[in-house]
Each structure stands twice: as structure tokens, then as C-alpha cells.
Amino acid sequence: MSKIILSVNSGSSSVKISVYSASLDQDPKELAETQIDGLTAPPPQLKYTRGSQLICKDKKLEETISSQNDAFKYMLDQLISDKDFSAINKKDDIAIVCHRVVHGGDYETPQIINEDTYHHLEALTDLAPLHNASALEIVKYLLKELPQAKNIAVFDSEFHQTIPEHIKTYPINQEIAKKNKLRKYGFHGISYSFITRSVAQFLGKKESETSLIILHLGSGASVCAVKDGKSWDTSMGLTPLAGLPGATRSGSVDPSLVFHYATNVGKLSPSSTESLHISRAEEILNKESGWKSLTGTTNFGAIASSDDPKMKLAFDIFVDRILGYVGSYYVSLHGKVDALVFAGGIGEKSDLLRKRVTDESSCLGFEIDGELNGRKIEDLVQEVGKREAKHRTLVCQTNEQFEMARVVAVDEKLFG
């Protein structure tokens, strides 16, 4: 029997809902996708695709939508009231809602959310205050308004539970570390899970025999070393702040830097609330850093194609930090790497970044093919490297929404 599954991806300034029809042990089929962007830079904008038909794109909304939950409610109402969308006519038509939850602590598998797991996830919010809270607001709304639907949390940190002890442990007092759950968790795991499976299929290999260096490059960016199909190491840490710089994130910096930045960084931020205990330091490093602080824009396309010295500096910093991880993970995997894989919005769109990173790591055996790299990325997995190179260079169009729905559809306990 097929069921309607919603995949909900609540970001820092956007919410995306994908609607799937799914049967147990079958790949879900996407029926519609709707997204509201610009929650932090009004007016919010709506994109809505029904099947293969684009209904609207970048439609400016006049309604007051100030939170992720507002955006979710607006899109849910729109899906229900769309006369041409027969899959959902009323709230009761929705059987399962899966939520991307950034920080899952020690959870190794997706969790059905009830009162108990909800409070456990709430307690994890302090580890990712800028990420978990908005997803939980939507969960809270659904538990009340759609009591018949099953809510399932799928965690970004889950894929990285296989990282070995010596890699995930911080060299600090271990009693305090364990008590406060201070270790490397890693994120973008839903994406890395999808990419690992998709690339293994493309290469005609078993997942358990596939080793990759994956670059998930977007406004939030990270790198993952996949060894025999499992996460071996990743650039993000206790929170998504560690590792690569992003649109507004600093990435890894000397921990002492924050104390020299300003005198009041340890105090709670003015935007801190009862559910969000954000220090001024967290806010600066997460929201007021990255390439926006260097260039004034979060548009990486504009940065990559500009000769402006500020833009060039931001581009060079990003390349340098990526190369640091590519080199480190190549050694950590003992050179047994099937492919270097670019993914995420920037990884898919910026042929200039792909060329620069691959050229600079050519000593490891990665080589870009100019003609292939210049083509539009249309396939799920697409070759951009030279065939005769020692290692493959690929682009994968990741799909976190699909991965969440698939995880539910292949698990009888979750699918029910």
C-alpha cells in the first residue's frame, strides 16, 4: 500500500517540503516540491513544482512569514488547497512526515518522534542552537495539528557515527567531555549517505567497497572521507561551525580568536531566547563571518567570477581550506580513493571552483577534463575528470529530501 510522505528540510533562512508517494521497500516517487526562501531577508519568496511542472519561482509573498513554522504552515495550506494536486486534499492524507534534524547526538538511526524523543531532541538543541530549534518548532506544530501522522527525525549526524574513536575525540578532560557530550559529530550526513550510494552505483561497485572524498559545498560547506562505504572522518565537529568557511560561517579558527574579537563575546546575544541560548561569539562566527564578511555578498557565483581583490581573497581562502582536507583525507585513506566527488549548490554549479581544486590536487592523481567540466550538470552522477587519470573526479546532484523518504520506505518499523 502506498503512503504519502512529506520530507521537511528546515534551514536557517528557508524551508523546503517534498511530497512523495511511497510503498514499503520501493524508491519513493516525488509528486511535488515547494520551498520558501528569504526568511531572514524579507520578502520571503516561494518556489512550487508539481510533478515536472514549474508552477511558480521566486514569487514574492505579501503574507507575514517570519519563522520556519510560518513558512511550513503556509506551504502545507497551499498543497491542500491546490485543486490540481490530488495527492493531498486534507491533512489526514499525510501518513508520514520526516524531518531533517541537524544534531542527533548519539542517535545512530532515525527516530519516531513522540513526547519522550521530542524532549530528548530539545535537550540537544544547545549543541546546535542555530539549527535544531526551527525543525522542532515544526514537529511541535504537527504533533498537535496532525496527530494521525507519524513524525520521524532523520539526523544529519547519524551517518558519521562510524567515525573512529581517535578521530572523534577532542584532547580535553575526558570526564568533562563525556558528561557534556563534547566530541566530533559531523553533519551533512543525509547528503553524504545519498552521495555514497549513488556514486557506488555509478561506479558499478558495492557500497562496502567504495572509498571517496566528498565535498558538500554550499552556503554551509563540509568534506567527508568515506572508507568502504562508511564515514571515516569529516570536517565539521561538535557543531557545524568547524571545518570549511561558508557564506556566513568562519569555519575553523584559532579558538582564542574569539576572546580577542571583542570583550562581550561570552554574553548571551540579544537574539537569544528561552529556547535558544546563543552567545554573541556563536552568533559572530556563525552569522557574521565567512565570505559575506570578506566580500559583502553570499553569492558564490559572483565571488568566483570576479577580479575584485576582496572576492579573489575569499575564493582563494575557500580553495585553500578545501585542499587542506582533500590532502589530509587522501593520506588518511592511504590513497585508496575511488573518486573525488563535488556536490551541493556550489559543487554542482561552479566549474571554476571544481577546476581550481582539481588542478591544485593533481599531484594526488585527480585531473579535470575541460570539456566535461564545462558541460551543464544534468545527470545524477556526472564525470568531470579525465578518463586516463589515476582517480575519477565526479559531480553528484545530492537529494536530502529523497534520502529521508527512502530511509523511511525501506524500514518496516518506520514505514509501519
TrEMBL record:
Residues annotated as site: Transition state stabilizer: H188, R249
Question: Which pathway does it serve?
Answer: Metabolic intermediate biosynthesis; acetyl-CoA biosynthesis; acetyl-CoA from acetate: step 1/2
- Which residues hold Mg(2+)? N9, E400
Enzyme Commission numbers on file: 2.7.2.1
Active site, per annotation: D156
GO terms in the biological process aspect are: acetate metabolic process; acetyl-CoA biosynthetic process
Pfam families from the entry? Acetate_kinase
Question: Is this entry keyworded Endoplasmic reticulum?
Answer: no
Cofactor field: Mg(2+)
Instruction: Specify which residues bind ATP according to the UniProt entry for this protein.
Output: K16, H216, L217, G218, S219, G220
Instruction: Please give the name of this protein.
Output: Probable acetate kinase
Native species: Hyaloscypha variabilis (strain UAMH 11265 / GT02V1 / F)
Enzyme class per UniProt: transferase
| Entry keywords, A to Z | ATP-binding, Kinase, Magnesium, Metal-binding, Nucleotide-binding, Transferase
For substrate, which residues are the binding ones?
Answer: R100
Q: Does Metal-binding appear among the keywords?
A: yes
Matches recorded under InterPro entries: Ac/propionate_kinase (IPR004372), Aliphatic_acid_kin_short-chain (IPR000890), Aliphatic_acid_kinase_CS (IPR023865), ATPase_NBD (IPR043129)
**Domain of life of the native organism:** Eukaryota
- Origin organism lineage: Eukaryota, Fungi, Dikarya, Ascomycota, Pezizomycotina
Query: What reaction does this catalyse?
Result: acetate + ATP = acetyl phosphate + ADP
The UniProt family comment states: Belongs to the acetokinase family.
What is a GO molecular function of this protein? Answer: ATP binding
